[in-house]
TrEMBL record, chain A:
Core subunit of the mitochondrial membrane respiratory chain NADH dehydrogenase (Complex I) which catalyzes electron transfer from NADH through the respiratory chain, using ubiquinone as an electron acceptor. Essential for the catalytic activity and assembly of complex I. It catalyses: a ubiquinone + NADH + 5 H(+)(in) = a ubiquinol + NAD(+) + 4 H(+)(out). This is NADH-ubiquinone oxidoreductase chain 4. It is found in: Mitochondrion membrane. Residues 1-109 form the NADH:ubiquinone oxidoreductase chain 4 N-terminal domain. The chain crosses the membrane at residues 21-41, 61-82, 94-110, 116-133, 145-166, 194-216, 223-244, 256-277, 284-303, 309-330, 351-369, 389-412. GO terms for biological process: ATP synthesis coupled electron transport; electron transport coupled proton transport. It comes from Cynopterus sphinx (Indian short-nosed fruit bat). Belongs to the complex I subunit 4 family. Keywords: Electron transport, Membrane, Mitochondrion, NAD, Respiratory chain, Translocase, Transmembrane, Transmembrane helix, Transport, Ubiquinone. The keyword Ubl conjugation does not apply. NCBIfam families: NDH_I_M (TIGR01972).
Automatic annotation (TrEMBL), chain B:
GO terms for cellular component: mitochondrial inner membrane. This is NADH-ubiquinone oxidoreductase chain 2. It catalyses: a ubiquinone + NADH + 5 H(+)(in) = a ubiquinol + NAD(+) + 4 H(+)(out). Belongs to the complex I subunit 2 family. Keywords: Electron transport, Membrane, Mitochondrion, Mitochondrion inner membrane, NAD, Respiratory chain, Translocase, Transmembrane, Transmembrane helix, Transport, Ubiquinone. InterPro entries: Complex_I_Subunit_2, NADH_DH_su2_C, NADH_UbQ_OxRdtase_chain2, ND/Mrp_TM. Residues 23-288 form the NADH:quinone oxidoreductase/Mrp antiporter transmembrane domain. Core subunit of the mitochondrial membrane respiratory chain NADH dehydrogenase (Complex I) which catalyzes electron transfer from NADH through the respiratory chain, using ubiquinone as an electron acceptor. Essential for the catalytic activity and assembly of complex I. It is a multi-pass membrane protein. Its EC number is 7.1.1.2. The keyword Plastid does not apply. It is an enzyme of class 7 (translocase).
Length: 459, 347
């Protein structure tokens, strides 16, 4: 794994020592090369993991997420070029350095073997994200957004630290590969219930669970484009990944403790989807749609069946790419009209036809159109939830309908209909933006042909 | 101050602390404390104004009372055990009184009231010595008597200190008071560790001293004592804004910075001894500390704080302050966490 981590660390000197005119080119090109370096990891065993060293390993669950975060770094850099044009080169390099630092921590998080190492890096991802949101966000509300983001996550995750250290003292090791085979069933007791809560709340806040989701709309809306992309695509999946790893140690308490969170998620996904129908702010709509999709992932992980784990993993990857693409599209709007209000720029299909094609593709994948991997994920989750409880099909069906409703609402509101008169002289789409959308869409389409790689460990 | 006088006084401060740390006779320990306290009074009084006189008087009164309590503890120990050696275990009553004396010297709650007020009334450089060097002697005494410390007492001191340090700092804008409440909270963490593993308390002390020295030296470089003047750092030394951000986040205990290491180790020691509720409470109150450090970073590094236009036109003069210690200190205060496996050397 050092063959990926060291080049990523060396991207920082590359940023600072590049000539000013070559900063964007160098960083984008080299981060693409690092992504290429990571592709061989996709050659996974069926029932085992690739163990690189004592500290790093990659199995079928962490590799798709790792690939997603590595793929996203060049896309984030491409997406940030416009809003940083007026800044001095030092500030541009600082911004790119923050993105690269975040990437280093993410790569190490997804490949960490030991859970405390995972925890330290999980927390470490907070600092660059906080700096990106608070320093480079657009509006005054970003200060509040950064505080909410930091403190919600920390209040959830500090009990996780204590729970992990306690588990290490009782079971002797927190190595993920060992806990799979060593974990004893937890006895039924109040303290084990509290242990379960301490372990899971950090990831619930990160996902986010419906009742703890207040930080997400704030953070997503106020973050600059790269911040929104990485938040939606990768940082939320840290919660899912952590939950998938740690539930191995928490049986059978999960089957009794999971009910409140399942209820919150099942209800929350409908609530947040419905809120999407009433949003005026485009980024806020996409943020709430993220909460809704992640609620499906939480339900899937709580059920703990093979199909639901497969669905959760597939949904995480699919949602990461889709949500990031939607944020890029919303940002392309924002760069032109400097407002996130949806109704200000309508009928964009007439003015920017190629961008309308990307909007269509993104909205269709968001509402889980077959044969995209979004559908595979959602379908697996719906099927496994139905087998858990037949009544849930009602809630899931309502959610799918409302998801389709707001995705099409977003599409029709921004693209179709008569254009507002003042958008006639918007600049046309840049090649950079089209590249960005194509880079998001291509993995989505190609993965639909071979979803085996994103179906996780239980395939 | 006259340089010769300053050297003699500083050496007396150092000598006092060294006598405390290295003597085997309890009376010499008391003498060391008195020497230390008397010598530091002129340092606290570098400027002649009523505010520093008030700070010095408060410091003198509390430290003298604490020294008298120390003398009482030594006498009780003498009565019960008949000897003055520091190597032998202390009598339990003497241990309680001595812990209270050290708590007063360190500024642990509920004896913390002097810390913010003394820290506020003195120069930044004197504040540096007060908050870092002056903690060495009492902590060394606590380390020596740690086998016999009454755990209820030290637990109470620790819980109260982290709570007071967290909540007390929330309403402050003066940087010296913020550092004082930060010191109270960190002392609370150290005494909690002292119950089970004095070595981790020393680790916390060392890293706390490095972090506080870095922070106060950065404040001295800017000559700032208020949040408002700290927010002008972007104009004076832009590079320092990043350093202040990193150091303050490290003080707050965020991974992957150094400040996380003592918290992690202390939580590990506490959970090894089946103490789960205490570290949970301590980490949650540490978040209060993090909040007011975040407020400082918000005004300094992460935003351009509103200021009047003539504050934005500072003269860029040649720097005259010695900043040679600052770069290695900044590195030490942010990048030590990967060296944590070296703690195995402590075994």
């Amino acid at each position: 794994m050092l063959k990926i981590i060291l080049p990523t660390i060396m991207l920082i000197p590359l940023t600072w020592l590049s000539k000013n005119s070559m900063v964007w080119i160098n960083t984008t090109a080299h981060s693409f090369m690092i992504t290429l370096l990571g592709l061989p990891l996709l050659n996974q065993f069926n029932d085992n993991s690739l163990n690189m060293s004592l500290t790093y390993f990659s199995d079928s669950l962490s590799t798709p997420l790792l690939m997603l975060s590595m793929w996203l770094l060049p896309l984030m850099i491409i997406a940030s070029q416009f809003h940083l044009t007026k800044e001095s080169y030092t500030r541009k390099k600082l911004y790119i350095t923050m993105l690269i630092m975040l990437q280093i921590f993410l790569i190490m998080t997804f490949t960490a073997t030991e859970l405390i190492f995972f925890y330290i890096l999980f927390e470490a991802t907070l600092v660059p994200t906080l700096i990106i949101i608070t320093r480079w966000g657009g509006q005054t509300e970003r200060l509040n957004a950064g505080l909410y983001f930091l403190f919600y996550t920390l209040v959830g995750s500090l009990p996780l630290l204590i729970a992990l250290i306690y588990t290490q003292n009782t079971t002797g090791s927190l190595n993920i590969l060992l806990t799979q085979h060593w974990s004893k069933p937890l006895a039924e007791s109040w303290s084990n219930n509290l242990l379960w809560l301490a372990c899971m709340m950090a990831f619930m806040v990160k996902m986010p669970l419906y009742g703890l989701h207040l930080w997400l709309p704030k953070a997503h809306v106020e973050a600059p484009i790269a911040g929104s992309m990485v938040l939606a695509a990768v940082l939320l999946k840290l919660g899912g990944y952590g939950m998938l790893r740690i539930t191995v140690m928490l049986n059978p308490t999960t089957s009794s403790m999971a009910y409140p969170f399942m209820m919150l998620s099942l209800w929350g996904m409908i609530m947040t989807s419905s809120i999407c129908l009433r949003q005026t702010d485009l980024k806020s709509l996409i943020a709430y749609s993220s909460v809704s999709h992640m609620a499906l992932v939480i339900v899937a992980i709580m059920i703990q069946t093979p199909w639901s784990y497969m669905g959760a993993t597939a949904l995480m990857i699919a949602h990461g790419l889709t949500s990031s693409m939607l944020f890029c599209l919303a940002n392309s709007n924002y760069e032109r009209i400097h407002s996130r209000t949806m109704i200000l720029a309508r009928g964009l299909q007439t003015i920017l036809p190629l961008m309308a094609a990307w909007w269509l593709a993104a909205s269709l994948t968001n509402l889980a159109l077959p044969p995209s991997i979004n559908l595979i994920g959602e379908l697996f989750v719906v099927m496994s939830t139905f087998s858990w409880s037949s009544l849930s099909i009602v809630l899931m069906g309502i959610n799918i309908t409302i998801t389709a409703l707001y995705s099409l609402y977003m599409l029709i509101m921004t693209q179709r209909g008569k254009q507002t008169p003042h958008i006639n002289n918007l600049p046309p789409s840049y090649t950079r933006e089209n590249t960005l959308m194509a880079m998001h869409l291509l993995p989505l389409l190609l993965l639909s042909m071979n979803p085996k790689i994103i179906l996780g460990t239980l395939y | 101050m006259n340089p010769f006088a300053l050297i003699i006084i500083m050496l007396t401060v150092v000598l006092g602390t060294l006598i405390v740390m290295t003597s085997s006779h309890w009376l010499m320990v008391w003498i060391g404390f008195e020497m230390n306290m008397l010598a530091i009074i002129p340092i606290l009084m570098k400027k002649y104004n009523p505010r520093s006189m008030e700070a010095c008087t408060k410091y003198f009164l509390t430290q003298a009372t604490a020294s008298m309590l120390l003398m009482l503890a030594i006498t009780i120990n003498l009565v019960h055990s008949g000897q003055w050696s520091t190597m032998k275990p202390l009598d339990p009553t003497a241990s309680i009184v001595m812990t209270l004396a050290m708590a007063m010297k360190l500024g642990l709650a509920p004896f913390h009231f002097w810390v913010p007020e003394v820290a506020q009334g003195i120069q930044l450089s004197s504040g540096l010595i007060l908050l870092t060097w002056q903690k060495l002697a009492p902590m060394s005494i606590l380390y020596q008597i740690s086998p016999t410390i009454n755990s209820t007492l030290i637990l109470t001191l620790s819980i109260l200190s982290v709570a007071v340090g967290g909540w007390g700092g929330l309403n402050q804008t003066q940087l010296r008071k913020i550092m004082a409440y930060s010191s109270i909270a960190h002392m609370g963490w150290m005494t909690a560790a002292m119950m089970f593993s004095p070595m981790m308390a020393l680790l916390n002390l060392v890293i706390y001293i490095i972090l506080t020295t870095t922070t106060l030296m950065m404040f001295m470089m800017n000559s700032t004592t208020t949040t408002l003047s700290l927010s002008h750092t972007w104009n004076k030394t832009p590079l320092l804004t990043t350093a202040i951000l990193a150091t303050l986040l490290s003080l707050g205990g965020l991974p992957p910075l150094s400040g996380f290491l003592p918290k992690w180790m202390i939580i590990q020691e506490l959970t090894k001894n089946d103490n789960i509720i205490l570290p949970t409470f301590m980490v949650i109150t540490a978040l209060l500390n993090l909040f007011f450090y975040m407020r400082l970073t918000y005004s300094t590094s992460l935003t351009t704080f509103p200021s009047t236009n003539n504050m934005k036109l500072k003269w860029q003069l040649n720097p005259t302050k010695t900043t040679i210690y600052l770069p290695p200190l900044i590195i030490l205060s942010t990048l030590i966490l990967p060296l944590s496996p070296m703690l195995i050397l402590l075994e």
